[in-house]
Inverse folding.
């Protein structure tokens, strides 16, 4: 983790001098994945921390924010700030969480901190920090870390305003592993404006959601200038914006699995197997309804792996329609966007012209070298969106210093022909040249290579083109081709009367699917589109009459920038996907409404040349009467679709009570689509064919209690052998809502039970899903609690991982050449104990293999403070806090296995995350001595290509603190720890150890500016996997001195002597665990941490550590950091 050593030492100093007026602490109940934002004007760099918990339990994502990765549910968060008179607040919200919570964009707010910039202009307010750090050590070159956070707002002059937010920060690596691709966390946004002009620069968003044909929403790094000349919203307006695109727009169609909430890969149609989704760009639609992102809402997204998972209270069936509009990162070619808009608003209307263009730079591909042969192959691909090129390149470097699987090229004879194939390089065979190869999955039997697992890594081997279903891979790369899309639009509207207006839109579109082909062999495709509509809004007595007539003409090659019609538009006409074709579209719609009723009708005609020709009728009503509401919608569509008869019939009727506490209701829904051979009864396909009856009752009262219980029955049909046949009948029950029990307890959640009776040769299913949460407070007992149970069908992705070298001090792992062959192997990387060893980071490379599973999760948080309910001087010192989490994914078949998160049947559990943590403490109110007992069980099980990876830690700790005098305090710490790591198929990573620690210490604290501590550590670490006694005995003496001087100077000196008795093997996973990077014999460690504020706002931090393992050279590590507070 970034700055891990500095944070540990600074946290230690701050915990000692917790009463320093510059440190602010607060307690909060928190769950894994939640985000804390400090709403302070200025926070000292690296001062934000969580008291008394390991750094691995939380992630600092900025100087003022952290994401909780651990499982404590009641924590104390502290930070330091300049000595200002302003009062700080903190903001804590579950709503900000999703799978990547730190992607949220924060709105720029005026800071309450009236700091003055060097230009001495008090009209500008700034807050933030600029930091640079240099890490260097004996075992590595220097590494540089940097961070910049700046908020600026105010006036540049009397009529010119400025807002700015600039952030540039490093992403901390996690010991458990990171995704292979990380989002860009650096953001720059600057806006300068007055009443007539607006200039923006940096990370800006280009958006148009009001033009008829030209719709887009793009995130770019660029520049924009807008002006508005006129008064009272009338006059001339113009803007020009452009920049380098962060992503491309696409619509993803997800094929759901029955009852499976996810994760689902967002990759269809992207031409990238593992795309990176631009944060906050997605719009998720389920059955035509827009979903909301959030852990407590409808879905969460992992942007780096491009995976979406729906929450337990959202029912996903095999007939669910899931569509996602999103932007994905540009990984193949640099992509740029240019936009220009100009127009004039006058009293009775407006006229505007807009130009938009986005294009890939085909001359500078990012994923491959554009050789003459590849260039010609891309031209020959023609007017399409993707192509296949060779996926191998010569490897340059030392094959012993890479974890990549390398291959040799050799010849073999097949049917008397000599062909070249690739075979894995073992490291022992001579080779003139080696290759790095990308193997693409082409489908069963479509390739010539098969995949296997060797030494925990994916390896591909040649089996020939006639190798059967296993021959699914080839040494090629499937790449997207560069494209260009531009549009010129002229639009306007005129008020022809007080109640009627006419509007028009004319668009010219020019696009190239393959710029290589279009620039040499072909030509760009051009398409025209026009729309004209007449809208009328009139009053007829007490009713409103609204009418609209609209006509579209769309040319053959017209292609929108982004989707410009409703996401369900093509489906409403029986189309599965849109196709480019000449089209005429006409509709009339009218509605008559008053306060309690609405009636509407719409007739549409659509002629898409060579595709479909048809008419659609839509009618709807909404009526309130005697405390009831009735809603109805009806649709009939008939069309000729590619020469076949295509028909839609849809009805929805709802009758429900809208007054009173108890509100019963009933709804009926039916959608019936059939595509038949023309003049024949043979059924070709059906988009959906079902009937659904839903009975429910809702309850609401003044105490904000709300419940809804219901049951619905649904029948589905599908075409089989040319005939519509019954497919299944489902019986579903649901209960959702929240109940406030008295004033201190609340129950909330959703429970869904679904039973499917299949009418074909398929096994019936019954499953349950949902989540239930209970939280509250017992006043008389001083007990707060928060518990929940989640159940849902899920999937688990089988992952691979590797290790990459990172700047010194920023990594999490170290490499030890166990077999001394000079070759890096997966089993030789261990989580590092010492900062000078942290040179590597574990990186996951996701595959595309999912295993169906059932997810169950139980969590229970409790906080019991006796001081909340008793005045006894003895009892009020007691407190008992804890957290319990059991999360498992299982392939078990029985219902009891699926809903039981506490099961220990390891054979069916494919992934788990378990934590049982509690802390018991008693403090003497009179004598200020205390005793505490803490116990933590943490285990994790991951599914990898190489098999399962299981990790378990169990730790028990007793701490007794007794003050001897006002200046002396004695402490005794007893600790027992068990560690287990089991890596299937990588046996050298396996270990099982037990640790015992006795740690007495004496602290002298004569004043608030000086502290000295003397400690003795007696530790024994035992290898439990060894048949013979294999252990290390530690005797450790430590001295620590901390001093605070004038000018905000803080200094800490540490010295440790470690005598270790160990006779086992050193270069092994067990040896590293038992020795922690040291050697048997006498070992020494010394360190210092100095912090000095040079002048107001400029802070220097120096950390140095030296250690001398027995019979080896001295190993140095140093970090120098400078920070400027704005």
């Amino acid at each position: 983790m970034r700055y891990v050593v500095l944070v540990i030492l600074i946290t230690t100093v701050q915990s000692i001098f917790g009463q320093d007026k510059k440190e602010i602490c607060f307690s909060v109940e928190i769950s894994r994945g939640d985000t804390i934002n400090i709403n302070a004007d200025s926070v000292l760099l690296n001062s934000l921390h969580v008291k008394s918990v390991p750094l691995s339990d939380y992630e600092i994502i900025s100087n003022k924010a952290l994401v909780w990765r651990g499982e404590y549910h009641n924590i104390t968060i502290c930070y330091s700030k300049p000595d200002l008179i302003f009062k700080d607040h903190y903001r804590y919200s579950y709503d900000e969480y999703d799978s990547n919570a730190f992607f949220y964009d924060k709105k720029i707010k005026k800071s309450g901190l009236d700091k003055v910039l060097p230009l001495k202009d008090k009209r500008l307010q700034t807050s933030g920090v600029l930091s640079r750090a240099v890490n260097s050590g004996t075992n590595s070159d220097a590494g540089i870390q940097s961070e910049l956070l700046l908020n600026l707002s105010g006036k540049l002059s009397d009529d010119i305003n400025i807002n700015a937010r600039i952030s540039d920060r490093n992403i901390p690596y996690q010991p458990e592993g990171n995704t292979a691709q990380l989002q860009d966390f650096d953001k720059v946004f600057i806006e300068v404006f007055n009443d007539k002009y607006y200039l923006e620069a940096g990370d800006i968003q280009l958006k148009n959601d009001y033009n008829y044909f030209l719709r887009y929403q793009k995130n770019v790094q660029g520049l924009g200038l807008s002006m508005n000349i006129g008064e009272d919203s009338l006059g001339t307006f113009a803007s020009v914006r452009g920049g380098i695109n962060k992503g491309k727009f696409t619509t993803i169609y997800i094929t759901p699995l029955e009852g499976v909430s996810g994760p689902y890969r967002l990759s269809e149609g992207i031409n990238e197997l593992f795309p990176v989704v631009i944060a906050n760009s997605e719009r998720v639609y389920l059955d035509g309804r827009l979903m909301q992102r959030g852990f407590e809402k409808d879905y969460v997204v992992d942007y780096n792996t491009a995976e979406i998972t729906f929450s337990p209270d959202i029912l996903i069936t095999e007939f669910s329609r899931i569509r996602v509009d999103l932007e994905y990162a540009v990984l193949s070619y640099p992509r740029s966007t240019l936009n220009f808009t100009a127009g004039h608003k006058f009293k009775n209307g407006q006229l505007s012209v807009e130009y938009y263009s986005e294009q890939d730079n085909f001359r500078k591909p990012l994923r491959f070298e554009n050789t003459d042969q590849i260039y010609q192959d891309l031209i020959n691909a023609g007017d399409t969106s993707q192509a296949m090129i060779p996926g191998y390149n010569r490897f340059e470097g030392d094959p012993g210093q890479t974890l990549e699987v390398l291959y040799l090229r050799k010849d073999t004879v097949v049917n008397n022909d000599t062909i070249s194939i690739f075979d894995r390089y073992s490291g022992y065979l001579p080779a003139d040249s080696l290759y790095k190869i990308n193997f693409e999955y082409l489908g069963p039997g479509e390739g010539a290579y098969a995949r296997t697992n060797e030494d925990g890594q994916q390896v591909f081997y040649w089996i020939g083109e006639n190798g059967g279903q296993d021959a699914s891979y080839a040494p090629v790369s499937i790449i997207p081709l560069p494209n260009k899309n531009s549009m010129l639009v002229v639009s306007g509207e005129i008020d022809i009367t007080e109640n009627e207006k006419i509007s028009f839109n004319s668009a010219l579109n020019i696009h190239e699917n393959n710029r290589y082909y279009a620039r040499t062999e072909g030509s760009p495709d051009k398409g025209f589109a026009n729309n004209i509509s007449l809208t009328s809004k009139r009053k007829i007595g007490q009713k409103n009459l609204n009418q609209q007539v609209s006509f579209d003409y769309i040319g053959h090659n017209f292609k929108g920038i982004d989707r410009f019609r409703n996401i369900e538009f093509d489906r409403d006409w029986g189309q599965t996907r849109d196709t480019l074709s000449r089209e005429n579209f006409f509709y009339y719609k009218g509605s008559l409404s008053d306060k309690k009723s609405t009636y509407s009708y719409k007739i549409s005609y659509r002629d898409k040349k060579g595709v479909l020709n048809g008419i659609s009728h839509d009618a709807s009503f909404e009526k309130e009467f005697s405390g009831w509401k009735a809603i109805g919608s009806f649709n009939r569509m008939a069309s000729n679709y590619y020469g076949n008869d295509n028909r839609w019939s849809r009805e929805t009727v709802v009758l429900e009570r809208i007054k009173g506490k108890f509100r019963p209701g009933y709804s009926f829904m039916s959608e019936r689509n059939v595509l038949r051979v023309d003049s024949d009864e043979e059924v070709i396909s059906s988009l959906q064919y079902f009937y659904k009856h839903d009975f429910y009752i809702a309850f609401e009262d003044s105490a904000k209690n709300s419940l809804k219980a219901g049951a619905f029955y649904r029948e589905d049909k599908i075409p089989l052998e040319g005939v519509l046949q019954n497919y299944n009948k489902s019986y579903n029950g649901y209960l959702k809502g929240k109940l406030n029990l008295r004033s201190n307890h609340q129950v909330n959640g959703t429970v869904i039970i679904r039973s499917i009776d299949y009418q074909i040769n398929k096994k019936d299913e019954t499953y349950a899903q949902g989540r239930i949460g209970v939280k509250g407070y017992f006043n008389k007992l001083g007990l707060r609690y928060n518990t929940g149970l989640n159940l849902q069908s899920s999937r688990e992705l089988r992952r691979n991982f590797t290790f990459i070298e990172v700047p010194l001090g920023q990594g999490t792992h170290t490499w030890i050449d166990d077999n001394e062959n000079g070759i890096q192997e997966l089993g030789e990387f261990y989580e590092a104990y010492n900062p000078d060893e942290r040179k590597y980071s574990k990186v996951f490379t996701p595959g595309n293999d999912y295993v169906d599973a059932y997810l169950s999760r139980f969590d229970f948080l409790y906080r019991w403070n006796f001081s909340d309910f008793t005045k006894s001087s003895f009892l009020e010192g007691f407190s008992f806090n804890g957290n319990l989490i059991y999360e498992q994914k299982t392939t078990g078949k029985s219902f009891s296995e699926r809903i039981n998160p506490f099961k220990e049947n390891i054979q069916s559990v494919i992934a788990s995350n378990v934590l049982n943590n509690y802390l018991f403490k008693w403090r003497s109110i009179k004598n200020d001595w205390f005793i505490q007992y803490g116990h933590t069980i943490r285990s994790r099980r991951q599914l990898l290509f190489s098999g399962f990876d299981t990790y378990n830690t169990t730790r028990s700790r007793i701490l007794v603190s007794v003050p001897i005098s006002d200046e002396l305090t004695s402490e005794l710490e007893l600790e027992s720890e068990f560690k287990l790591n089991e890596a299937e198929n990588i046996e050298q990573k396996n270990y099982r150890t037990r640790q015992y620690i006795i740690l007495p210490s004496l602290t002298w604290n004569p004043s608030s500016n000086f502290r000295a501590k003397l400690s003795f550590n007696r530790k024994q670490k035992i290898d439990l996997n060894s048949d013979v006694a294999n252990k290390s005995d530690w005797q450790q003496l430590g001295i620590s001195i901390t001093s605070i001087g004038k000018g905000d100077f803080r200094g800490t000196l540490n010295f440790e002597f470690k005598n270790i008795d160990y006779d086992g093997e050193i270069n092994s996973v067990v040896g590293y665990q038992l020795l922690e990077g040291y050697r048997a014999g006498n070992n020494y460690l010394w360190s210092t941490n100095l912090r000095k504020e040079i002048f107001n706002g400029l802070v220097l931090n120096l950390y140095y550590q030296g250690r001398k393992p027995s019979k080896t050279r001295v190993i140095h590590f140093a970090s120098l950091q400078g920070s400027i507070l704005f």
